[in-house]
Structures are given as structure tokens and as C-alpha cells.
Amino acid sequence: MKALLVIDVQNGIVEFGDFEVELEKMEGIIKDFKENDDPVIFVRHLDDEKESPLFKDSAGSELHSSLKDYAEQVIEKQTPSSFFNTNLASILEELGVDHLFIVGFNTEFCCQFTSIAAFDRGYKVTFIEDATGTVNDDETYEMEGLDIRDFVGTVLHWSEVIEVLDYEEYVEEY
């Protein structure tokens, strides 16, 4: 069985940029999973530091209004991996999931870490590159011209263990 992980679609991230296109793609995938009665699991990152945009008691930590109505099941985490110190693995085992699809924020942190952790736990993993987004850019990493999503997608694809698709390929294949 397949399941969709929607990672860190929270106010404190979404409000940093224009993510309308990414959110529309995420919503299309969520609707597809729901129509097929496949599990959709949202993941929220919560920080203990009050200065963080994802501070656990702040509006920034709340799921973004564009997708929160789809969130029937929410896992809370405090690290980039959705598996570390959470009950995600046990939920997936109870559901009989063997194939995870990854969308959400931030591409190079939580989405990538969760993808690798899922593979390490024996799941088939599909990373939908253009249904992820990041608040960071080439200036953040002092690497002029860096396309973070494309870079992460390429690295995961070249691993030959994580399937990397764009939204249109996902629609065609699944």
C-alpha cells in the first residue's frame, strides 16, 4: 500500500515566499490519494526556541490554511527526519504501507532527510521534486545559480534507490 507524507506545510515556512504553484501540486496529489483511499499523513515540525518561526506555541507552527483541512492525521517532529522520535513507523506498519510519496517543505532538509530515512527502513520512496519547496536559495548556500530542488532531486535520483518524479510524471505514472 502507498501513503503520502505532507511535510511541514506550516505558516512559518509558507509565509516566507510565493509557494502557490507548489501548494497547488501538493493539493492535487493529496486529492488523488484521498480519492483512492490511500493514507495521507501530515508532519509538523515544532521547535522549542521562541525565536523560531516554528515555535511550538506560535501561529507559525500551525498547518497552512491552504491544506490543513486535508490533515486527518498529523505527526509532530523536532528534527529533519519524520521518523526520528515519532510514531510514524508504527503507524505505517499498522496501515501496511510499503511505498511512501514525499511532498512538502523544506526540500533540502526535512523532505530529503525523511526520504533517506524511509529508504533505510525498507520503504520504496517516491520524491515528487516540484511538489516540494524551500525558503532557501543560492545566496543561502553561497552557491551562485544553485537550484536547490533540482540539486536534491538529482542527488536522490542518482542514488538509484529513491524514485524522483516531477508532478506531471507522477500524474502519468500513478
TrEMBL record:
GO MF assignments: hydrolase activity
Domain Isochorismatase-like: 3-156
Annotated SUPFAM superfamilies: Isochorismatase-like hydrolases
Domain of life: Bacteria
Keywords: Hydrolase
Protein family according to the UniProt entry: Belongs to the isochorismatase family.
Protein's recorded name: Isochorismatase
